[in-house]
Amino acid sequence: MAFEEDDPYSVSQRLEIQNILQGLLNKRTLVRLDIPGHAVSVISTLLDVNVKQGTLVLDNATEDALNTQLLRAPAVRLQGMLDRVMVEFSGPISPVLHDGHPAFSMVWPDQLRRMQRREFFRMDIPASNPATCTIEDPALPSGKATLPLANISAGGAQLIDRAELLANHAIGSIFDDCTLDLPGVGPLDVSLRLLRQARLAQDGDKPLLTIACRFFKLPANREITIQQYVGSLERAVLARRWGTE
User: Nearest-CA neighbor of 147 among 122, 130, 171, 123?
Assistant: First the structure.
């Protein structure tokens, strides 16, 4: 991850970095590990922060294939929310044992970014309980498209566009007539602004087009509903991680 010299969000003081990492550990905060540009991400937690060695230990994934991809990557990005502030940094990881169990080890970053954001933590949508977004637009082949969600936050969502129906839409396009279908919540009418498109590498297959969108003029009551849904996803991950379900 590159930082600009005048980046107002950059933190480079070692003691401040230590305090931030210790905060993530003490609050058992969920963090997201991913490989930028690849369809690989896991939700993890910090297990230990070693001040003397300048390393941190992270829980690994339950799927061996995901662990292998993360370990092979030259750099893994870590993102987590601490007191409603996004913390983000990157670095290589290596395998380690923690209390006799496989885990990841990561060297403290020389710099990290700490960004105040309005939206809550971004959560992946579980494949076992998918969520979708239906976009109605006359420019679409059949006038509308229903796309699965890859992840969601209170600020926006990332859509999976396997058929590349939105590939020719310009960045900044606004879709006024959209419906989120969130499990346990039901349909929510929203407007979306297209932020960016990315093609994520997949093993043995063509790159997957993803569409990052921000909610546009989202009413407060719907923002609260989406926040509650994101919170339910986070609680489910925590419950599985700590063995309470």
Answer: 130
